[in-house]
Design goal:
three-stranded antiparallel β-sheet; 3 strands; alpha+beta
């Protein structure tokens, strides 16, 4: 890896079922069994919302 490249930080949530990272934009990957949705509790939903807001503000600033 060159000095001008940074390692991409990947945020893992919901016991590893959700991954969020920034690479030219905010990427969100859901890894659930089959086609089942990943269910977030209140605390996880707030954590995801806060993370997305923080990453969006970093991209704008």
């Amino acid at each position: 890896m060159s000095d001008d490249q940074q390692e991409t930080e990947v945020f893992e949530m919901a016991s590893g079922d959700i991954y969020v990272w920034v690479d030219g934009g905010i990427h969100l990957k859901i890894r659930g069994a089959g086609t089942d949705p990943v269910e977030l509790g209140e605390a996880e939903a707030l954590e995801l919302g806060e993370l997305l807001l923080r990453l969006a503000l970093q991209q704008c600033g």
